[in-house]
């Protein structure tokens, strides 16, 4: 894939939304996943909305209420967010019955004079409901798929059937990688001609390197992830003790939260990795950009152990901060970074340890590119805003 070419998701997404670039539109982004919940989908929706506002479009966001955050809120540049009183059923997703969301979503569409409805994520029941209601109202529809699904288990079968119905007459579908496109086309029985691949993007000014934050007497491996099964936390639990016992100067810095946190805590207790000798730190924090960068710049290596990923923004953020990246070779990850900026491994403890050992050796010998040079390359790979080309 042409990783060296700058990507401008904003121009492409807005163009696909309506197929008419000269007209200003009222766009409604719809998903169960938005701030204050933290994650790649949430960040994507916010950044895309900000860029569309800069282009002169009106953008509002519809999501469900998060705890005491209900009603209408305003974010940067007047971005209006509707936190609708819909019942959350599982993993921050509402129940999809279409009828209970109809009066609320229809009210938003009519009140804001929406011309384009852009739904996000196969996991989001609100996204499917919004596509259905938008079609009944004659509105343009766009859907962006951020994840990969299987075909055999009950959950995947039900989701895929729902996706087939939701996307059967959607104007355009966007996927974040070619692997994701193939997956979505097969799951929803789509015409590949109406599915485009537009990679995610990162604001490079939010993720700049700062080598002064590193400790020279140690090698620090950073992991920032939701601590859940599909992120390969069980693999991480096998990697930590094996490498810490071999390398006394190796430290792990982990940021995240989730049910698999107990796995990492058990590893820390079992192998007594509390002290500075082979120490292991677990830090839990809200995944805001300023917090993420503050952790990333302390590391030398960024580790991703995911079992499935459509794109994986975390490795782009890590590379943008100048870290060497080691990741599992799953989903769309091989498409994301050039081969010399990432070490790909099989999703096994042995393969990941071997990959990390190789990068640690290069790090100690000083045969790795400087953080500034890595950042200079990554900032031109995936960017929200169009860069001026020199003649």
Give an account of the 3D structure.
There is one protein chain. The protein is α/β, with parallel strands linked by helices. It folds into 2 domains: 9-197, Rossmann fold (3-Layer(aba) Sandwich), CATH 3.40.50; 204-378, Rossmann fold (3-Layer(aba) Sandwich). The chain contains 12 helices and 16 strands. An 8-stranded mixed β-sheet has the order 3-4-2-1-7-8-9-10, sandwiched between helices. Strands 13-12-11-14-15-16 form a 6-stranded parallel β-sheet, sandwiched between helices. Helix 3 (102-111) packs across helix 4, helix 7 packs parallel to helix 8 (261-270) and helix 7 crosses helix 11. The longest helix has 17 residues, at 349-365. The protein is globular, with a radius of gyration of 21 Å. Pfam families: Glycos_transf_1, PIGA. Keywords: Glycosyltransferase, GPI-anchor biosynthesis, Transferase. InterPro entries: Glyco_trans_1 (IPR001296), PIG-A/GPI3 (IPR039507), PIGA_GPI_anchor_biosynthesis (IPR013234). GO terms for molecular function: phosphatidylinositol N-acetylglucosaminyltransferase activity. Residues 64-153 form the PIGA GPI anchor biosynthesis domain.
